[in-house]
What does this fold into?
Amino acid sequence: MDYPNYELIVTARSAQDIPPGVLPSGVRVVLAHAEESQTAEKVQNLLAAVRASRKQTQIFAFADSDGRVTRRWLRALVAPLAEPGVGASTAFRWFTPEPPTFWSLMRGVWDAVSVSRLGPGDSSFAWGGAMAIRKETFFEARIPERWTSAISDDYTLAAAVHALGLKIAFAPGALTPSFDRVGMRRFFSWAIRQMKITRFYKPVLWWLALLAHFFYCGGMAASIWASIAGNRLAEWALIAQLSPGMLKGLNRAILAKAALPEYEPWFKRHAWVHAIWTPIATWLWLIILIASAFGSTIEWRGRQYRLRV
It folds into this structure.
């Protein structure tokens, strides 16, 4: 990391969860050895790492194991914490599967829509794969207590920061590539789990997404139906509906390429899908949101959790 002084802690439930040959030199390994409970395994691991951190630590920065952070990641993520009124900072992931599969690329198009919720000013949520918070703020917000029995580390942290009247700043320079690839079944199970967690921890955001996609897809379907029936104006209406979303998708890819210059070859080959596939991703959003409206149980890393706030 291009950062003057930091400690790297890798945390897991047990040693068997860490593949051989992946740990860099100088890393501290913290094993949670947590018992089965309704607190998410990830949250238990993070709590163990926080307890094991150095006393002189001033900032906690959290990352996920599937992220392939750049050398500037930590500096970019920490920088917003120097601004007045900022309680935490966050970035987001960008799926860069190589070689890609259809569903791996589609997951990237689907997921990138959430980046639009982040930007200047206060962000409505934080993403756990790239978030930072000052140690004093972490304990002032009573996040360890809030994480007890929590499933979501990031939604819980964001709510605690906002409860203090502080902002969550977006750090685009800490955009995090992920090489992970998925098939159709894994994509849908992952996406539905994400939206179920959102429905419980951020219901207003979930409802806004559902209503927006319901009306958007409804308008799209009506235009297609009218166009098939011979209404020429409906074709123009369909173009007017699709164009803004496709342009937004392309713009997101352009901004992501600027934040990740070392991945320019990947963007040259695959950035086009973020424009062309956006209409399909819109329908997937509606399907996934409807599917996430039912049930209060999720499966995560082979364990069943019952969602409750």
